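Known limitations

Files may contain more than one protein. Parsers should not assume a single record per file. Below, a two-record file is shown to illustrate correct handling: read the sequence, read the token line, then continue until end of file.
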Amino acid sequence: MYKISKIERMDDTILDISGVGDCFYMTWASDGNLYTSMNDGFGWKDMPEFDGRFYNSRVYVIKGDAPNHSFHHLAEYPNLENDFTGQNTITRYYGFGILAVEDRIYNFMGTLKDPVGALENAFIGVKLIYSEDNGKTWKNQDGSSPVIWEKWEDRNKDNMLFFHEPDSVSGQPKSEY
């Protein structure tokens, strides 16, 4: 068990990096890289893999130590692009938690009650997806592959980690320390 005994601000390692997205929960993985879960954004324009697409949820890998680190689109992560062509075209899932344990990466995906923009919307569940090989392949919580982004009407207690829990508990684990 590790115990933090000192925190030191190192101004020479702080960089102003422009990116577009929300949340950016992070976890260190066994491969020595930092993985970050992003919601509603493009990522970083200076990434080699920048494609200009707007993702509802995405995982990126940060390689190297500051100030010589780089951001990369985790190509193997299942696509979850925002599609603004219709209210029910896809169910929204938001990566509100990411946790690495040994070679596994767990991504906890919050899901809303109604399509985005609906009145009195609330998070009502969490879908769990995971990778057993530091992000190279991804599975649903039952071990099946490929990852399925269930439509609104197909979400239930069998394919969600938490769903319509008592007292409106959404069960959203977050990677906070």
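...continuing to the second record:
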Amino acid sequence: KKGDKIELSLPMEVKQVVANPALTVDQGKVALQRGPVIYTAEWKDNEAKVSDLVIPRRAVFTPAYEKGLLQGVMVLKGTVLKKDKSGKVEMTAIPYCDWANRGTGEMTVWFPMEGAEHGE
């Protein structure tokens, strides 16, 4: 009827997608996915080298809209570990489709998963 409103809610939880073990180069690694979108970590957003980041199995990533980043983008923020076990660092991931727009630097989609180096 006139004046009716419809509200649609599509929950998009952040998931850790485990690489297929048949892909030996990505064994023990995970990617981050929110809804249909895969995320990447770039050098520009992270204090530590992205190749030095390890994702804890129970890591929680929170979506946050960054209006001033790449003309507005939903990022994921969470606490991860350093590969050398020297501590925790905050990580920001952006949608894969938005990478390589802010200069040349390191990026990754597949992250080592905590404990995977020991076959856990």
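Parsers that stop after the first record will miss the second one. For reference, the second record is described as follows. The CA atoms of residues 77 and 92 lie 5 Å apart.
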